[in-house]
């Protein structure tokens, strides 16, 4: 299993980095390639979502195709930043305020397919659009945001292994601990302290305290994104969202934290860009 996991990572990481750094930027010839790359990730995740949410029949089969169409339409919002900011703020409200209630109450997904269709798009599409927007700040800026999830997950894993005694959410994800979460936050705070602030528009104008506050917010939503997907899987009795990524489970298993981080980070970025 470890060998498979490593081989998959060795294939996927260079592919992701090549796409981030070498696909054409928006406004240049061939810029549709990056949008298509982000759309492909959303389509794969939507295929897993229809399984996770219990969709059946015709709607389950066409849901990934519908997701591709809706994502293509919404991608035009990148040319109307004010509307895009509204969408990102809406997604941020979900992750910052609705998700904690969802996790606390352990709400189950509705049996109505149409509600799960909309919920899936609400979870996935803002993150996909955020990938497009944040890359306009530059490849390194996008990579810096993605790295928050990787730093948080890695630090949480090692701190949890070494010091974990108090369960964070035993009925949702028994392996996670408060000590691990604290370690993840510490890792992100250290990462943010050393992060070159000029990677982002007017980033150097923000105080260190403001940057660290943003780090705390993004770390918190990353944990909630992880826990929300774990809750859905536990409720339906699934270990992984799929086997699309050998040794890693599914796409949703890899991007659950980023689904929360990306729209919140994008809302913050657009706020400084527009105001």
From TrEMBL:
Domain of life from the UniProt record: Bacteria
Official protein name in the record: Phosphatidate cytidylyltransferase
Keyword flag Protease: no
Reaction equations catalysed: a 1,2-diacyl-sn-glycero-3-phosphate + CTP + H(+) = a CDP-1,2-diacyl-sn-glycerol + diphosphate
Broad class of the protein's primary localization: membrane
MF (Gene Ontology): nucleotidyltransferase activity
Family: Belongs to the CDS family.
PROSITE patterns associated with the record: CDS
Transmembrane segments: 28-46, 58-78, 84-103, 115-134, 140-159, 180-196, 208-228, 257-274
One Pfam family matching this protein: CTP_transf_1
UniProt EC number: 2.7.7.41
Any coiled-coil regions, as ranges: none
Top enzyme category: transferase
Membrane topology of this protein: Multi-pass membrane protein
InterPro entries referenced in this protein's UniProt entry, alphabetically: PC_trans
Compartments, record wording: Cell membrane
PANTHER family documented for this protein: PHOSPHATIDATE CYTIDYLYLTRANSFERASE
Metabolic or biological pathway, per its Swiss-Prot or TrEMBL entry: Phospholipid metabolism; CDP-diacylglycerol biosynthesis; CDP-diacylglycerol from sn-glycerol 3-phosphate: step 3/3; Lipid metabolism
Keywords from the named record: Cell membrane, Lipid biosynthesis, Lipid metabolism, Membrane, Nucleotidyltransferase, Phospholipid biosynthesis, Phospholipid metabolism, Transferase, Transmembrane, Transmembrane helix
